[in-house]
Amino acid sequence: MDTLLHTPRLTLVRLTDTSSLSSPHVHLFHENWSNPDVTGWSLHGPTHSLDESYEWMKEQLAPGIDSMFYSVFVRPCESDKQDDEKERGREKEDITGLGEHVGSISLRLQPTGPSIPLSPPPPGTPPPRTENLRALGYAFFPSAQGKGYATEAGHALLNAYAAFVSSSSSPSSSSSSSSSSPQKHHGEEEGEAKRKTYIEAAVDEDNPGSIKVLVKLGFEKLGWKHEEEKVFLNGAWRGPGYWVYGLFV
């Protein structure tokens, strides 16, 4: 996956450097996860120190979860740069030169597979890939909400991931694999190339803003995932359970 993604208004930077606490990537991760408003809908909740954020980041980027975590920036416009530069500097130090840090978006592995069973595909259609299922997550600072940034960043990330998966599963890619792997016939290769990849998103029924984002991104409501107990999210007890949305790319 590309480490930099661009849209008309945004730049997405993939956070990968966990070499030390002083890493700019660690500080960006901390800026996101230490904010109670940003993490209100997260089961993990906010971190309370840079050290705690650092440990959480290393856990999220470990092979078992392998989160493709991107910080999202609004590129500064020349027309308002002079007027807003001092104000932005007071709010958040621009340690990247990419503009204002407005939130994050990610695709993380979900080793347990789909949260609810998927419907069988139409006849003649290969089943979607679910062996490396990823779940979409996003969180934006309050000042950046309601401006379409989540939708814009979501389209960029999903399109990039679809291209990445497609290139990884193309016949040319498979032909370069180890000679010890079983050889596929031409028809099997074509079927593999046509397989869609399934991406999931979980959302609370009391979070209409997030539901609107998912719909704009093309996700479809697949069903309700029932849980045994309620959870405390965004200042109230929710559930028990949540809506599951899915997208095939």
Structure description:
This protein has 249 residues and is of the alpha+beta class. It has one domain: Aminopeptidase, CATH 3.40.630.30. The chain is built from seven helices and ten strands. The strands form two sheets. It has an eight-stranded mixed sheet with strand order 1-2-3-4-5-6-10-7, with helices on both faces. Helix 1 (24-33) packs across helix 2 (50-61). The longest helix is centred in the middle third of the chain and has 20 residues, at 149-168. It starts with a strand and ends with a strand. Residues 173-193 have low confidence and may be disordered. This is N-acetyltransferase domain-containing protein.
| Largest beta sheet: strand ordering | 1-2-3-4-5-6-10-7
Please identify the top-level CATH class.
Alpha Beta
Mean pLDDT across residues: 85
Gap between N and C termini: 15 Å
Counted up, domains total: 1
Which CATH-level-2 architecture?
Answer: 3-Layer(aba) Sandwich
Within CATH, the superfamily carries the name Gcn5-related N-acetyltransferase (GNAT)
- Count the strands? 10
Gyration radius, rounded? 20 Å
- SSE succession: EEHHEHEEHHHEHEEEE
Q: What is the helical fraction, as a range of percent?
A: 25-40%
Please describe the biggest sheet, giving its number of strands, its sense, and whether it closes into a barrel: 8 strands, mixed
Percent of residues in beta strands?
Answer: 25-35%
Q: List unreliable stretches of 5+ residues.
A: 173-193
Bulk shape: globular
CATH topology: Aminopeptidase
Number of helices: 7
Structural class, from secondary structure content?
alpha+beta
